[in-house]
Amino acid sequence: ISSMPLLLQGKLLRVLQEREIRRVGCTKDIPVDVRVIAASNANLEQAVVKGTFRSDLYYRFAVITIDIPPLRERKEDILALARHFIRFETPEGEPAPGLAPETAKVLMGYKWPGNVRELENAMKHALTFLSEGDITPDLLPPKITQHAAAVEETVATTDADMAGRSSLKSFLKQKEKEYIEHI
Fold this sequence. Notes:
Blueprint: H1 6-18, E1 20-21, E2 30-31, H2 44-50, H3 55-61, H4 75-89, H5 101-109, H6 115-129, H7 142-182
């Protein structure tokens, strides 16, 4: 709803207030009894302040608001949604494949900039290439597996750096001990 032009917002507001529509080319109004559910990925209050969204339409819609955080902030939903999409895409009567543990780890570690739709598409992608068994990481879209590989490389580098620092500490302690003994 936030990307709707101001002119169209005015027309929608009129429909909601008057409870009537007029077909293109007609002169007669048609009564309607509707409820509108609208979604926005933008903050409508800020859009009202900026002047890109009508305040009267905002208050018409702001009767019941539901704030749904992005998937990256709801990690606990990732695997449940992935399994839902797998079941939904599996033909009726066939057993739904599972997620290999390493696949679950990859899914949980990804940031999901495309939100739930990106997760749904990732599951469709994996199912397209699945021949049998559970969904493994190699069946996921390359963008997701490349991210997982980059994260693993960073973790491995950090671990190696920490191990090096640990041995450096012990090396310095040893040299300090030798120096004190020599004095």
